[in-house]
Write a structure and sequence with these properties.
about 290 residues; nine-stranded mixed beta sheet; two-stranded antiparallel sheet; 8 helices; alpha/beta; 15 strands
């Protein structure tokens, strides 16, 4: 059993499993485009976007708007404009966890020290800016379709479930894939005023290890943690620890999969790029599926 992928791409590697995406994977993925339809897989971001209690919500401020002109602001040659600013946590809505987001035993992916992350400078190693844009084959594993229902809070998605969902879609997980998991959690939260982030369906460690050993580039889901909550007794974020810290697999959380499900496609061109914020532990992003 492989314990980790440290040093596989060198002592200084900070890309992790995204190294599995090369020119061959990109060409294969672009060959999947049939209709040219582009689907956005991201949640809308606003002050109403739910976040866990320990994070602030999004705050949106207008620096210049129509009211300024009504109050007499200048209009040189008739020109007018609006501009704004946003304050928000980087782990909000649809977002990616960088490889510096989770670790244990004071050691990050590839053996880097936890001391490389500082409140004054951010992460000097494995920051989200080290992640290249992702262009690869996307694979949808629809656990809702497999089970014929939305998964219930706290329900474990096993390796056998993932294999069954892949078989149902008549596909094989391959090196460099972006594997997207539909649990139905985000769908079930629509209209809910007080979203609970403490109990969710998700994968367990065995399922996560299987994905890592398939050499996937990234794992995403329509829930907030990817892994099942609450955790198995005696563990804390074990899937984050294994995928991010041990195997260098970034996690995409809070995916909006409704448009993809409606399309009926299980393989597609997947494109996503994080905001290259130096030293950041994650980033909101707006991934797309091209059909």
């Amino acid at each position: 059993m492989i314990e980790n992928t440290w040093k596989r791409w060198g002592e200084d590697d900070e890309r992790g499993a995204l190294n599995f995406i090369g020119p061959d994977q990109v060409r294969r993925a672009t060959g999947l485009v049939q209709t040219g339809e582009v689907l956005r897989l991201a949640q809308l971001l606003s002050s109403k976007t739910p976040v866990p209690a320990h994070r602030c919500g999004l705050q949106h401020f207008m620096g210049r708007d129509g009211g300024d002109y009504a109050a007499g602001a200048g209009r040189p040659e008739g020109f007018q404009f609006a501009e704004d600013s946003v304050i928000m946590p980087l782990h909000i809505g649809t977002h990616v966890d960088a490889l510096c987001h989770a670790w244990y035993d004071d050691t990050l992916y590839n053996g880097f020290s936890g001391d490389t992350i500082r409140s004054t400078t951010g992460a000097s190693r494995l920051g989200v800016e080290k992640m290249p844009p992702i262009v690869t084959r996307g694979v949808l594993l629809d656990l809702v379709r497999l089970k014929g229902r939305v998964l219930v809070p706290g329900e474990v998605i096993s390796r056998a479930d993932l294999e069954a969902a892949a078989a149902m879609a008549d596909l094989k997980i391959e090196r460099g894939d972006a594997v997207l998991l539909r649990t139905g959690w985000l769908e079930s939260q629509k209209g809910v005023k007080n979203v609970s982030f403490d109990v969710e369906p998700g994968i367990d460690v065995e399922a996560a290890r299987w994905l890592a050993e398939c050499e996937v580039a990234v794992v995403g889901a329509d829930n907030f943690a990817v892994e099942v909550l609450p955790f198995a007794k005696g563990t804390v974020f074990p899937v984050h620890q294994l995928l991010i810290r041990d195997f260098g697999v970034p996690l995409l959380e809070g995916l909006m999969l409704d448009p993809l499900v409606a399309s009926g496609r299980y393989t597609f061109l997947f494109v996503a790029s994080a905001l290259p914020i130096v030293g950041a532990t994650g980033s909101p992003l707006a991934p797309v599926a091209v059909l």
